[in-house]
Amino acid sequence: MTNQEIIAKLPYSKPFLFVDEILQINENGVEGTYYFDEHLDFYKGHFKDNPVTPGVILTEVMAQIGLVCLGIFLLDYSFNSTTSIALTLSEIEFLKPVFPKEKVIVISEKVYFRFGKLKCKVIMKNENGENVCTGTIAGIMVSKSEIT
Amino acid sequence: MNKEQTIEELKNIVQPYIQNQEAFDILTEDTDFINDLKINSANLVDVILDIEEKYDIVIDNEAMERMVNVKAALEIIATKLSEKN
């Protein structure tokens, strides 16, 4: 599967798609980027007259690139529209703020993928190469037909 | 394999994932991981990986599906340990 095919299979759309490109992906991990457009809606309210990217959005970026893109790659062609995705764990440290017009790189390393559960160690870096978030994220990806 | 000792070891493994302390305090062989201890299915995967590590065994999909309570876990651990020797 090509990187473009993986992004096309993501079950998100604007304004909740947080993956721009996949730089590299293999069975052990993934690297991808996202650019924070200054017109994103949440900047109007977080914070008033002082836009800073919310931690929940940074977590979502890490999960979409680090967990969901990798999960689609690992499931390969068995991933389809009936596949259920659920975030089950996020333990993230937020080390530096991320402002509008910043581009971030997410680097995810698989800890395990067993019984439909994918767990990864995930780092987000800014364009200066500084870690802005680090942590662990896990989720479940299963075909609906497998849920009894 | 000493059953009482293995139950104690299992208690240590599941403790971080339980959501029902009362059921955990009176845990027996018949205690169900999901219905009694309220461990969710995602955390049950971690329980199984911790069991694999503790006993140096590999649990396959079929065994995973059977491992719903303490009794089944004890049986599966015993079977996998005997296969190893």
TrEMBL record, chain A:
<dbReference type="Pfam" id="PF07977">
    <property type="entry name" value="FabA"/>
</dbReference>
<keyword id="KW-0456">Lyase</keyword>
<dbReference type="InterPro" id="IPR013114">
    <property type="entry name" value="FabA_FabZ"/>
</dbReference>
<dbReference type="InterPro" id="IPR029069">
    <property type="entry name" value="HotDog_dom_sf"/>
</dbReference>
<protein>
    <submittedName>
        <fullName>Beta-hydroxyacyl-ACP dehydratase</fullName>
    </submittedName>
</protein>
<dbReference type="GO" id="GO:0016829">
    <property type="term" value="F:lyase activity"/>
</dbReference>
TrEMBL record, chain B:
<protein>
    <submittedName>
        <fullName>Acyl carrier protein</fullName>
    </submittedName>
</protein>
<dbReference type="InterPro" id="IPR009081">
    <property type="entry name" value="PP-bd_ACP"/>
</dbReference>
<dbReference type="InterPro" id="IPR036736">
    <property type="entry name" value="ACP-like_sf"/>
</dbReference>
<feature type="domain" description="Carrier">
    <location>
        <begin position="1"/>
        <end position="81"/>
    </location>
</feature>
